[in-house]
# Entry
Amino acid sequence: MTTNWHEDGSTILLPPKAAVTASAWRHHHILDLDDFTQDEIELILHITGSMKEVLARPIKKVPALRGKTIMTLFYENSTRTRLSFELAAKSLSADISNLTASTSSIVKGESLIDTLLTLESLGADVVIIRHPQSGAPNLAAQHIKGSVINAGDGWHAHPTQALLDMYTMRAHKGVIKDLKVTIIGDTKHSRVSRSNIWGLTTMGAVVTVCSPPTLLPVGFNQPGAYFPKVRIEPDIHKAIEGADVVMVLRLQLERMQTGLLPSMREYIQLYQLNEERLKIAKPDALVMHPGPMNEGLEISTGVAHGSQSVINEQVTNGVAVRMALLYLLAGGKKA
# Structure
């Protein structure tokens, strides 16, 4: 199995340990990170590094997935995720087609399963799906032979975002184990926070969640809860103190209309990450955000574009991570 390419498209082998691990790759789908081992996440991050090398070349393309067909099926609007998957597929020389719900037979009442079967009939090797309903990608995985990648489903999961976040952390910090990572914001409705909690705890990070009580998942961190144990700290100053990474979640403005928050002014006062609060974290702490940002609400403009922000780098790394996943699912078993 290979993960790096010369300029002429010929390959070089992975180091022996990584090659052995890669040969045992067992995932046919990427639905969430709750069933990934530490070695499997390490493999993805390792291959992502090779993909970053490809993207740094003058010609950002290799023939790894030539002849493979990738299809995206997005029931929700997306900029970063959709474009990065498209660029990832093209960089691996795959054929990619994009289907948007609003411009397809879905608006005429076609079911998710019927749409998936149509994509399979058209030769899809991998279907990348974003859907407002939690569990939709899991349902898709039960009905088609090709691989399914979850590009975000409801409040449930966003595994590729979590993987690019972890890659970005490790690129700066060298390791993930024992990093103090604080996640601030609406964890109840955040698929990004859920996948990050699974991935980060699997990799040995120490995770703190800072949210208003009304924006914590029901039963979160209680005995018998599905999620791994994390620290919950409603006081933002205590939550940020000594953090290596501060990850801010987008506050979905529609939550204001459901009575879960009294006012935006109060949220800013209690939970916004600003310059003064960031000083409580470690001096070299990273600032992260999955985007899109509400600057001036959950994060100040100065912090969002400050020297500690790696938010734009997260977007860049998203292409390499998704290249690694497409390669593992659609082409990795071809030496």
